[in-house]
Each structure stands twice: as C-alpha cells, then as structure tokens.
C-alpha cells in the first residue's frame, strides 16, 4: 500500500506541455519519443486558464504515472477514438498502407502496442423504443504475432465496456459494465454514474474503496465547459451512498432533493460547493481549424494513482495503460459524447451544423 503525502509534485510546479496538433511530414512517421507531446513546446497555463492539479493525501496501490491522451471523433461519425498520445495517433496515420522498410518498422511497433488507438466508443441511438443501450466501448489489442499484418481496428479489439443510460425523475443513471479480461468473465464488474438534473455533479459508485465525482463547470470565454474529477472526502454525501443494486438513488439522500425543483428551477450551486481531493480536470480550449474540420480541443489532466503495470515506463504503448485508467477514460468518452450533442443542438438552433471535436487527455501525477 502506498501513501501519497500532501505535496505538490514536480509536474505541478512546471508549465504543462503544448497540445498543438503534431503531425508527421509526408508519409514519414515522427521518431519515437517518450516526451508527452513528441515535442518540447510548453503551454502557457494562464493563457488557457488551465487549473493547477493539486493532489491531496489518498491511499492507493500502485504508482503515480503521467499520460497524455487524445480523444476525437472519427470523420463522418459520432464514434470516438482514444489514443495514448498525439505521437501515437501521428504514427498510426503515417503507417497506414506502409510497405517495405516502413511496414517492418510499423509491424514491430504495433506488436508492442505502439502507433495504434487504445479505445473506440460506438454510440447507440436512444431513439429506439425503450432502449437504454447507450454506448459500446472497445479496447484495442496489438496484432497477433502469428500474423504478418499491421493492426486492423475492425478485428484487433474486444468489448471492454457496455454503457446503458436511463432517465429517472431527478437524475440520469449510467451503468458501465466492464470486461477487463474477455477470457475470464469472473473479473467483470459494474459501476453506476449518477448525473444530477439540477446540480453540476456526476457521482460514481465506490471504486477501489473510494468515492469519486466529476463536477461540471464553465470556466470563461475561452473555455465553454470543464469537468473536474474529485475523490469525495469522508463525511461528504454522494448520490451513490446506499444506492440500490439496480442503481436507484436512495430517496432520503440529502443531495437528491425535490424532482419538480430539480427539473425546473436553476441551481445556485457551483463547483466550489462540492469539495473533494482533486484527482483530475478536463477542460475545453479555444477553437481552431484543422483538416477542414472545426475542432474544440479538450485537455484532461489526471493522476493515475493505481498503476501496477510492468510497462508503465513505456507510456506510448497501449499495454502500459492500467484498468483503472481505462475505467475513467470510458467515463470521459461519455462526457465527450454528451458535450458534442449539446454543441450540435446549439449550432442547430443558430442555423449552423454541429461539429465533431477532438479531445486531448493528459493523465498526470
């Protein structure tokens, strides 16, 4: 068991890396690097109002590991792809259709889990009659060693998480069913995430002995929205306290309140009204044009405090990502989908078509 003292990490004292899109020149993939962004540029945190991530004492098993994830929508689709880094995405795009020496190099890297996506979230329409099936999230795997081919995203994958969504009187209920090992279904487990209709909170049922909460907030003109991930302090209420087996919130929960009020009366509570030990923060940055699409990049700084993987020093490989990180990434995919949906509705109301936006994630300790 590792106890993390109440201290500011070295990463918190430094400027965070730049998230300008890093693309290869021509068909040549960028050289492999363990740099978080494949370059040495720095991001002016004041310019983009990036909150400093403060780690309070939390007890977990494992190491504190830094990640830089990138999440974006596939072209002409609402589906969402997650990469370990921009460098991984750039290599994956550059190695498509590789031949000769590039093929051999790509094959060697992909067999080790490099230069390929990590997750794919496929959205299901809730318009079908009484359907609660919301999203299927696949985890990708390296191409088999016995086959002389590059990674194929339609084959080299398995269902890692199934998500259902159901509307209740005062909240939305998401149920996430995880399959960490498809060969061992005994390891399957489920979590509930409760989205309060009035308060800006998404409470998560107990995971690894801790209660977590995402808190939604607006951060200003340059950033339309953000989500802060907190570990809820002992003694503070959560919507998942005494939650039923089927995910129904206890009627006596102090956070639940009146259903009529929750649906019709605006909340006067803000992020500061829901304190906790900050574990991560996701925030949207300013717009920019790339590849003829309008993007709304988002960065997500997160402390992976539970990583026991043997490959954690090879942070560009999908093999280095712990199940704990994957669990939170699945939740981030849900937020990504919901925010894209809100943005499309806003643009539709303004007489414009909605855009599908990429998402930058940084898991940091």
UniProtKB/TrEMBL annotation:
<feature type="compositionally biased region" description="Basic residues">
    <location>
        <begin position="343"/>
        <end position="355"/>
    </location>
</feature>
<feature type="compositionally biased region" description="Basic and acidic residues">
    <location>
        <begin position="38"/>
        <end position="48"/>
    </location>
</feature>
<feature type="region of interest" description="Disordered">
    <location>
        <begin position="1"/>
        <end position="48"/>
    </location>
</feature>
<feature type="compositionally biased region" description="Basic and acidic residues">
    <location>
        <begin position="11"/>
        <end position="24"/>
    </location>
</feature>
<feature type="region of interest" description="Disordered">
    <location>
        <begin position="340"/>
        <end position="365"/>
    </location>
</feature>
<protein>
    <submittedName>
        <fullName>Uncharacterized protein</fullName>
    </submittedName>
</protein>
């Amino acid at each position: 068991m590792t106890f993390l003292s109440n201290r500011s990490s070295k990463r918190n004292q430094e400027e965070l890396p730049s998230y300008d899109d890093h693309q290869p020149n021509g068909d040549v993939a960028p050289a492999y690097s363990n740099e978080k962004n494949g370059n040495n540029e720095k991001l002016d945190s004041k310019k983009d109002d990036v909150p400093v991530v403060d780690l309070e004492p939390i007890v977990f098993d494992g190491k504190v590991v830094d990640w830089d994830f990138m999440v974006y929508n596939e072209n002409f689709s609402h589906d969402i792809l997650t990469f370990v880094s921009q460098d991984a995405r750039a290599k994956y795009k550059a190695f498509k259709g590789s031949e000769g020496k590039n093929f051999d190099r790509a094959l060697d890297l992909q067999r080790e889990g490099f230069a390929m996506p990590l997750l794919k979230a496929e959205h299901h329409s809730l318009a079908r009659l009484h359907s609660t099936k919301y999203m299927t999230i696949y985890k990708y795997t390296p191409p088999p060693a016995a086959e002389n081919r590059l990674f194929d995203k339609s084959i080299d994958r398995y269902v890692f998480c199934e998500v259902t969504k159901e509307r209740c009187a005062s909240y939305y209920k998401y149920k996430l069913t995880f399959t960490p090992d498809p060969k061992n279904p005994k390891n399957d487990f489920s979590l509930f995430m409760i989205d309060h209709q009035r308060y800006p909170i998404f409470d998560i049922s107990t995971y690894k002995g801790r209660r977590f909460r995402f808190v939604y907030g607006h951060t200003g003109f340059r950033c339309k929205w953000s989500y802060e991930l907190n570990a809820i302090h002992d003694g503070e209420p959560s919507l998942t306290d005494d939650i039923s087996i089927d995910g129904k919130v206890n009627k006596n929960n102090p956070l639940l309140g009146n259903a009529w009020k929750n649906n019709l009366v605006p909340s006067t509570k803000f992020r500061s009204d829901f304190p906790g030990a900050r574990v991560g923060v996701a925030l949207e940055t300013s717009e920019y044009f790339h590849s003829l699409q309008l993007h709304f990049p988002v960065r997500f700084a997160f402390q992976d405090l539970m990583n026991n993987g043997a490959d954690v020093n090879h942070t560009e490989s999908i093999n280095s990502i712990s199940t704990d990180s994957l669990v939170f990434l699945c939740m981030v995919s849900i937020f990504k989908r919901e925010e894209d949906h809100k943005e499309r509705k806003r643009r539709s109301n303004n007489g414009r078509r909605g855009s599908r936006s990429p998402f930058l994630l940084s898991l940091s300790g």
